[in-house]
Prior knowledge:
Blueprint lengths: L1 H54 L13 E5 L2 E9 L4 E2 L2 H4 L17 H17 L6 H9 L12 H5 L26 H7 L3 E2 L14 H4 L8 H13 L5 H6 L19 E10 L2 E12 L3 E9 L3 E2 L6
Parallel strand pairs: 3-4
Antiparallel strand pairs: 1-2, 2-5, 5-6, 6-7, 6-8
Helix pairs in contact: 3-4
Amino acid sequence: MLVVAIVATVATYLSFRQQVWLRQVQNTTDRATVESVRQGALAFAGVVLDEDLKQNNFDHLKEKWAQPVILPFDGGTVAIAITDAQARFNLNSLQVGGSAPPQSGQPPANPSNPEMVGQITQAFAQLLVALKIDPGLANALKDWIDPDTNTLPGGAEDLEYATLSVPYRAANQLLISVDELRLIKGFTKEIVETLRPFVIALPGPAPINANTASETVLATLFSGGGDTAAKDIVRARDAKPFESITDYDKALPQGVQKWSNLTPSTASSYFLVNVDIRVGRLSSQTEGLIKREGNRKTTVYWSRPRPIVIQNEEPS
C-alpha cells in the first residue's frame, strides 16, 4: 500500500507539472498572438483612414472610419475603434498654434506671437471654466511647455518645481501625453481625469474639427464663451456635415465673436485608435495615435499597450 501511495503521489505531481507547463506554453503563444494582432490592427486602422481619404476631403462622425468594428480570428477577436483626435483641444496649441499650416506649405504662425498665444491660452481657460476647474491653470500649462523661464501669474517655472520634496524642472517642451499634466503645478489626478475626454497632446498644429468636436470643445472657438454657437454648429452638422469652412461659417449665429487664431477645420490628420484583443484567457488593450497624410501615408506616432490581463477561467 505504501508503494501504491508513493506511485499515486508521484503521478499526481507529474500530471500537475505537465498541466502547468502546458498552460505556460499556451500563455506564451497567446502573448505572441496578441502582439501580432495588435500591430495588424493598427495597420488596419491606417488602411481604413487611407481609404476614407479617397472618398472626400472632409471628416465627420457618419463615415465608416468612425464606426467600431469587431473582427474574429483564429482563437480570438479584436475590436477596433477609431476616434478623431482633433475633436479635442490640443494642449500643445498654447505653443505651436491653433491652426494647421496654410495649404501653400508655409510654416504656421509664429508661436511667439503674443496675440496668438494670448487668445489660445484664454480659449483653454474658457474650457477650464466650463468644466468647473480653476482657469489659472492655463498659465501653469503655458509655463510648462514654453521655452522661456518667465513665470506667468498662477504659473510655475524651474525655481518652484526645484523646491518640491522630489525636485524636477519644467519641461520647456511640448507635452508627450495628457498624463504629463500631473507633473504641472495645480493639476491633480481628479482634474486630469475631468479634462481627459476633452483634451489631447498632439505633436504639431492641429485645428479643432468642427464636424466631430463636442459642444464643450466647440465653445472654446469663441471669445467670451460660445455655448449657443456650439449648439447651432452641432445642430447644423447633424443635418449635413460641413464640407468646408464656408459651410461652417454659414451655421454660426450672427454677432458671434470668433478667436482669430483658433480657426477650425472640417478635416483631420490625427486619429486615436483603441484596440481590444481577446485570445484564450488573455485580454489586451492598446491606444495609438495615427497621423494621416496624403499619398496613402499614415504614421503611428505612438502606441501604448496596457498590461495583459489573464483571466482565471477559460471563457465560455
